[in-house]
Amino acid sequence: MLEISQLVKRYGHDDPVLKGLDLRVEGNSVVSIVGASGAGKSTLLRCINRLIEPTSGSIRLNGQELSSLKGAPLRQARRRIGMVFQGFNLIDRLTVMENVLAGRLGYVGFFQAWRRRFPPEDIERAFHLMERVGIAQYANKRADELSGGERQRVGVVRALMQEPDILLADEPTASLDPVTSEQIMKLMRALASELSLPVLINIHNVAQARAYTERIVGLRHGRMIFDGTPERFDAAALEEIYGGIEAPDETSASTVAEGER
């Protein structure tokens, strides 16, 4: 379970980007975070995995306080937080298998990793997960030879190789075409159920948030102003979150939700 209490993030002397945020994510729930640019969505995810330092507040994962960790305890905690990035963050010159096994770097020794000598059980799990998401046939291909959707599947499998307690996804479909982006969203929803894994997705596409996640959290200017089911995410909620700015793909939301839920 992820428990966030009174989370504040301030850069320098500017107004806080996150202003006393409270959030709980548990079970195998798939939660989307929506809001206009600058609402604090990416900042929230980066505070959770400590890519940036929270200014104040509490972040607890399965009872362990993350916000105060440093050194080896922080590295160990990060192993339990899988991350899927908008830009894939793959090493292009390495093969798909090598990129996937990078998810085990927090668990093996330095010389094992340097020599790319991973335990047989890690390799077996990698093949199993790659087969599950449909990329096993690319195991020996370089990452830069893949399409965007295939590259994102590699990123998902790499994150799952950490055997995480939670999966974070920062705009995982923003670099993909509409059909592929829906496939990735559907995949993450299915994996959350199969692995009993909570998933927290920062997403601009309101239609996909409605169609593929069971709970929507809306941020505006660093504050949570909506937390509910897609059915409750109506025109009034959109107006409150986006303040008159047209939400991305808002007009197609009902169509996608009816066809894919």
UniProtKB/TrEMBL annotation:
Keyword Membrane on entry: yes
Domain ABC transporter: 2-246
GO cellular component: a single term: plasma membrane
Coiled-coil stretches noted in the UniProt entry, renumbered to this chain: none
Localization (cell): Cell inner membrane
The keyword Nucleotide-binding is annotated on this UniProt entry: yes
CDD domains for the chain: ABC_PhnC_transporter
Membrane topology: Peripheral membrane protein
Primary localization: membrane
SUPFAM superfamilies linked to this entry: P-loop containing nucleoside triphosphate hydrolases
Superkingdom of origin: Bacteria
Any GO MF annotation of the entry: ABC-type phosphonate transporter activity
Keywords, sorted A to Z: ATP-binding, Cell membrane, Membrane, Nucleotide-binding, Translocase, Transport
Protein's recorded name: Phosphonate ABC transporter ATP-binding protein
